[in-house]
Design brief:
The radius of gyration is 30 Å and the shape is rod-shaped. Strands 3, 4, 5, 6, 9, 10 and 11 form a seven-stranded mixed β-sheet that branches. A two-stranded antiparallel sheet has the order 1-2. It has a two-stranded parallel ribbon with strand order 7-8. By secondary structure, it is α/β, with parallel strands linked by helices. The protein contains eleven helices and eleven strands. α1 packs across α4 and α2 crosses α3. The protein has three domains: 86 residues, Orthogonal Bundle (Arc Repressor Mutant, subunit A); 97 residues, D-Maltodextrin-Binding Protein, domain 2, CATH 3.40.190; 103 residues, Periplasmic binding protein-like II (D-Maltodextrin-Binding Protein, domain 2, 3-Layer(aba) Sandwich), CATH 3.40.190. Helices cover 46% and strands 24% of the residues.
Length: 297
């Protein structure tokens, strides 16, 4: 590091002797001389007047000495601040979350964490699963929360977080809403309301429709789960959504859960991190609290 060379230079300048500087730095005298030579070559200027008894600074050396002291001081300040960040719960956490997690699960978790660690600044980005994975890979986020399966790769750390129950919902006045139990065959030729491609909910819906051999009469696409459930409540069609998303609407009677015979749908939520992304104590503590206190929903 350049700071190593600057530290050697400053020590030589203050000791006015190569061997004394080498002794203080626990380096060999040739090693000290090499650092100085490399600095002079890099800057294109002689930095020290050498004599058998002592060395002294040239004009260029005096300029470098003044700036080197400042650089080393700033570097030490930065090092101490980083150490503080690593050992105390301060700093910032940049979180990404797919819509279901970011809008319906994470806010409560963050409120509890922020109450306990008020010195931590939290910024949350909400997007679909593929957008969050892309932001993690681009080192734009510290951690991400995503829905569904995440393909294993060399650059991502994938931590299982919790299970999520998926249910089929319909408008309250839909003909199927009157059935106590719905047969899978009764889902044929229905109008479906779907999320956009790239969404974890859309991937799950597509897989379900394909695996059960359901033929959709037509489909409508929304770019948020809020839009999907509002469309269902308005009578546009039926949808497959996380129970987290529709709990309030189910309780209020705005939409109805279709209980499908012999069918229980479940997916995974995962935490993802870039393996090379720098870590802080704030992020580590947040994850510990989250994983220790997690509950399946």
């Amino acid at each position: 590091m350049i700071t190593d060379a600057l530290r050697v230079f400053v020590t030589v300048a203050e000791q006015r002797h190569f061997s004394k500087a080498a002794e203080l730095l626990n380096l060999s005298q040739p090693g000290v001389s090499l650092h100085i030579k490399n600095l002079e070559n890099e800057l294109g200027a002689r930095l020290l007047h050498r004599s058998p008894k002592q060395v002294s600074l040239t004009e260029a050396g005096s300029i470098l000495y003044r700036h080197a002291k400042r650089i080393l001081s700033h570097y030490e300040d930065a090092r101490q601040e980083i150490q503080l960040l690593q050992n105390e719960v301060t700093g910032s956490i940049f979180i990404g979350a797919s819509f279901t997690i970011g809008e319906y699960i994470l806010p409560g978790k963050l409120a509890a964490f922020a109450g306990q660690y008020p010195q931590v600044n939290i910024q949350v980005t909400i997007g679909n699963t593929q957008e969050i994975i892309g932001a993690i890979r681009g080192n734009q986020l510290d951690i991400g929360f995503v829905e569904g399966e995440v393909q294993a790769s060399a650059d991502l750390e994938i931590i299982p977080y919790m299970k999520d129950e998926m249910i089929v919902v319909a408008p309250s006045d839909h003909p199927l809403s009157q059935s106590v139990v719905v047969e899978q065959a009764m889902l044929q030729n229905q109008v479906w309301v779907l999320r956009e491609l790239g969404s974890g909910t859309r991937a799950f819906s597509d897989h379900f429709i394909q695996e059960t051999g359901i033929e959709a009469k037509r489909s409508h696409v929304f770019t948020s789960s809020q839009g999907v459930k509002e469309a269902v409540a308005a009578g546009l069609g039926i949808a497959l959504l996380s129970r987290w998303v529709v709990r309030k609407e189910l309780a209020a009677g705005d939409i109805t859960e279709l209980r499908i015979r012999q069918l229980q749908l479940e997916r995974s939520f995962s935490i993802i991190r870039h393996k090379e992304h720098s870590r802080s104590m704030a992020v580590d503590v947040f994850l510990q609290k989250l994983l220790f206190g997690k509950k399946e929903g």
